[in-house]
TrEMBL record:
Residues spanning the membrane: 26-43, 55-77, 84-104
InterPro entries: K_chnl_dom, VG_K_chnl
Membrane topology: Multi-pass membrane protein
Pfam family name, one: Ion_trans_2
Full protein name: Two pore domain potassium channel family protein
Family annotation (Gene3D superfamilies): 1.10.287.70
Example of a GO biological process term: monoatomic ion transmembrane transport
Length: 117
């Protein structure tokens, strides 16, 4: 197992983390809500003219970047934006926590360089 960990590429390790923790379900739900929110905003917000703009706004809002190039004005748009922000905070917080915990556990399993000498 130790040799397999050393041979894996970073994306393979990340995919392994996602499979082991079943985080793929959370990723799928996050992406689905991102697209659903984009559709809702496309039809309810006068400032959003294209689906690309609504995807952009949804992504920027979920990452809590908020450039301000598009601003929602309706009550539905604001509610969807608040949910996107909260969902994004949960998603990215859980993602970083899972990755850090996984690497800490792998660090416990790998032998120390001092132990090998």
């Amino acid at each position: 197992m130790k040799a397999n960990l050393k041979k894996k590429k970073p994306l393979q390790v990340l995919w392994h983390i996602v499979k082991v923790t079943h985080f793929s379900k959370f990723i799928l739900s996050f992406v689905c809500y991102l697209f659903l929110a984009a559709l809702i905003l496309l039809f309810t917000e006068p400032a959003i003219k294209t689906f690309g703009d609504s995807i952009w706004y949804s992504f920027v809002t979920s990452t809590t970047t908020g450039y301000g190039d598009i601003v929602v004005t309706t009550a539905i748009g604001r509610i969807v934006s608040v949910i996107l922000s909260l969902y994004g905070l949960l998603f990215f917080g859980c993602l970083s926590g899972i990755v850090v915990t996984y690497y800490m556990e792998m660090n416990k399993l790998l032998p120390k360089e001092d132990d090998q000498k």
